[in-house]
Amino acid sequence: MNMIPDDAIERLLEGCQSIAKQCETQGIQEWEIVASQGYGRSLDIEAGRISLASGGGEGGFGVRVLQDGRYGYAHLVDPSGAEHAVSEALSIAKASPQIEGFSLPNAMDASPVEGMSDEAILNLSAEDLLMQGDDIIAEVASLDKRAVVIGGGVGIGAEASVMLSSEGVEASGITTSHGLGVQVSIEENGQMTSSWESCSSRQLMDGIPSCVPMAVEWAQKTRDPISVETQAVDTAVLMTPQGISSLFSNIIRPSILGERMVRKESYWSEKMNETVLDSHLTLLDNRRMEGGFASSSRDGEGVPTSCHTIVEDGVLRKMIWSTRDAAKNVAEGRIDSAITTGSASRGNHMSPPTTGCGDVQLLSSRKAQSRDELIQTMGEGYIVHSVMGAHTANPTSGDFSVTTSTILRVEDGEIIGALKQAGVSGNLFKAISNNVHLGTQSTSGGVSSTGSNHLSDILFTQGMRINPA
Amino acid sequence: MVIQSQHAPDHSRSTKYLDRTRMNNALEQAMDFGATYAEIRLMAETTSSVRLKDGQLEHAIPGQEIGATLRILADGAWGVHSTTDISNIPNEIESTVKLARAVAARRPSGSKPIQLAEIPVLQDEIHWRPKKDVRNTDLQTKLDMLQAIHSSANDDERIISVACGWSDEHLHTELLTTEGMDRTWSFQRSMVNGMVTARDGGDPVSYRMRHGGEGGLELIEACDLGGLGEHARISALRLLKAERAPSGKLPLIADRDLTGVYIHEALGHPCEADLVAAGDSCLDGKLGQKIGNDIVTVVDDPTMRGGYGAYPIDDEGLDVREKTLIKNGILTDYLNHRETAHHFGIEPNAGARAQDGLHHPLVRMSNTMIMGGSYTDIDELAEDIQYGVYACGSRGGQVDTGRGSFQFAAQEAYLIENGEITTPLRDVSVSGLTLQILNDVDGLTKDAKLASPGFCGKGQTVPVGDGGPIMRIREALVG
User: Packing angle between helix A126-143 and helix B93-104, nearest 10 degrees?
Assistant: First the structure.
């Protein structure tokens, strides 16, 4: 049985058209309506068993109106409430400041991004999903009889979405997703260690995804912690993709937004064409990555998307914009000229579009090293696999001070053991600007509200401080 | 796909969204299919958010959302269906019973079927009516209030941006169960917030502020909004000259905000009985044991009107109550819901909360506080400290409940030298181990109060309040 109704798009389009009709009735000059309807199945795992299975769907409509360069927004779940919603959006528009030069984007052709949906996910039954849950629980037990999945779950989703605007944009599509997360713990001899790992894809993940054995591995690796001197040290730190991704999301991603740049709220403000990353590093904001969680053929305003080179060989080359943010900051004189880069993002139908990152990739022109080679290069330092408190990092300054319980001590190019807990602090902008080494394999992480990063192991040789508990 | 119409709302009476006859018939059908318990919980939300950036309206978003969750217990396992299509719920009964049974069929030998603790079955309505219904507040009033924050926050040339936000919500919930429960309740939350960014040639710094709670417009009217903006401005400017914090194990004094975040992260989450039952809490097996200093008493209290985590009825239909989690250092209770109350053989204490109508309830905190101690003020707490840190304002925290390790970050901080508060510090975070640091709390001022409103994430996000007195910790890992 298909998870998503055959007429899902038609039903959304019909709703959009009725809201559009209301916009025209109320004399709205420009309007843009988005609609989405998600369908999903999921299961929760607790204490080594599947504890709950669920399904369902949710969605709604959002309407943005533009009147004399002033915009308003409202959201609703039922198009029969369109009259009230459009009226509210219009009254808000009237109270909003006029943005000279702000117009909704015209319709333009957009080529599809591959890999955004998978029929196999649409056809996956609840029983299929439960069987995958069974397999994950069994796999963990087979890898280490002490290991238990104490939390997490598996889920699949499909979302139908539609955009319709007065400027001729009419777009629709269906995307799918498959994600899982596992918290694996090992409790023995009064000692409990655990590790949370997750992975996701727009394609069906057959079998046991690699994050499952990785959770067991890190729960094992962090047992029997060693004692080290409890004194903070400035040292080399190898961050795994899972370790760096949340800090990257909270610090690097906001820094490339055009509005933050021109308002001087970004550490990289006024540094265009200056070196901001180690000279072999390139930072891409890719909205057209095959199967990318933050990729699509059009952005949140209907503009065709691109892959942007933000930093090239260490030099800052570009910032990203939505139509509205670009017009507003030009009108306010913060920048001479700016146009949309097809970078408008929406959380869901309840949010108006704002500038946001796509799938962000950090690449190196140098030969990448394996993790073992990076450890050899490091000689002495630490490997950090996950951090707590990345959301408390300062996105403006790049300063962070977080905690880790998955940290390994390296001496003479060898891992000698785990620490029970340590603080990790530094300034990510400064740490990533010099003498950085990247690992071989790019791994996605930090999907969902913080976006989608595609990072490899990163060896920081300066700018990091470890503070063992 | 949705049957509920959403025309301009009538605030004068309580509209019922669930068709009682149809939905009760659907619930009965669930029992016919073999369920032992079933419920339909609907939440309708009327929301508004406004954002002002540098004194100009950035956006104002009115919204109305509705969702419902069907939760069915069959053969000792849960099946759940969530939807915005309320009319379709009766059509999902059979498949949801089957889902629950499919989960039950996988239960490992030795694992007990889920059962629910008994609670009173009530049919009533409870509405926490605010003094001033926030839904009647027009946009201009909201803008004027945000402008008051902006004007005082922006009053220095080193301030490079000020963002202010307003959010309010009216929440209407209905719960029908196969036990005969038919409860409807409603309440409101209102909040203003802001972020000030300052720069003086060097690196930019920022400072955040929040004020709000359970209630309507009266909550925001009672706030000195100019004072809120001024405090944020002064703090941001102070951060421009602040130094990097020392690293290491140091005596720490935390203000009310940070004390609240500390107790939320370090104790509150490990006390959630669903995590304890899953084997993901360092407090497993420790009920009745001494886990903290004698001076530590902690409560979680959703009845505390005005707190951002207050609510009248939990999402399983149980009247809320104060819960004492630690009494004089002894762990006395877990936060629980009906399933975990039965699992541990303890009294249900109304800790079930769902993010909205589309999520099933989990065990959550509400307003969590350490109670006051014997010290008069911060000067008395600091006088014995030769070298330490006084940390203020929260930038959030996080916990690994199983390992019992936590982290929280301060907005600003100061060195304490020879009992005196001296040099401003920036980017201070504190980490530790729950079972160790509760014993290291060695001083509390008398005046425990809720601090700034906050949000808690556990797969679902819910508003919470937390706070306490000013607190001294003998030694904490500062970074």
Answer: 20
- Residues B471 and B455: their CA atoms lie apart, in Å, by 22
Residue B286's domain comprises: 243-478
At A155-190, the pLDDT tens digits run 999 999 999 999 999 999 999 999 999 999 999 998
Are residues B287 and B430 located together in one domain of the fold? yes
Same domain assignment for residues B217 and B307: no
Domain membership flag for residue B10: no
B233 shares a domain with B110: yes
Confidence of residue B468 (pLDDT cuts 50, 70, 90): very high
Which of A46, A126, A264 is opposite residue B278, by nearest beta carbon? A46
Phi and psi at residue A192, to the nearest 5°: -120, 125
Do B155 and B253 fall within a single domain?
no
Cβ contact B479–A83 (<8 Å): no
Its pTM surpasses 0.80: yes
Q: Are residues B236 and B250 in the same domain?
A: no
Q: Is B200 within a domain?
A: yes
CB contact at 8 A, B389 and B252: yes
On whether the CB atoms of residues A456 and A440 are closer than 8 A, the answer is yes
Q: Which helix (H) or strand (E) holds A410?
A: strand A399-411
B397 touching A, CB under 8 A?
yes
- CATH number attached to the domain at A8-221: 3.30.2290.10
Q: How many domains does chain B have?
A: 2
Do residues B389 and B409 make contact, with C-beta atoms less than 8 angstroms apart? no
CATH code of the domain containing B96: 3.30.2290.10
**Beta strand segments in B117-158, E:** 123-127
Q: Under an 8 A CB cutoff, do B248 and A76 touch?
A: no
Token pair of A68 as six digits: 């004399």
Say whether A97 and B57 touch across the interface (CB within 8 A).
yes
DSSP H stretches of helix in B247-307: 256-263, 273-277
Low-confidence ranges of chain A (pLDDT < 70): 1, 441-451
Query: Alpha carbon of B241 to those of A267, A397, B188, B424: distances in Å?
Result: 17, 14, 40, 7
Residues of B in contact with A194 (CB under 8 A): 280, 400, 402-403
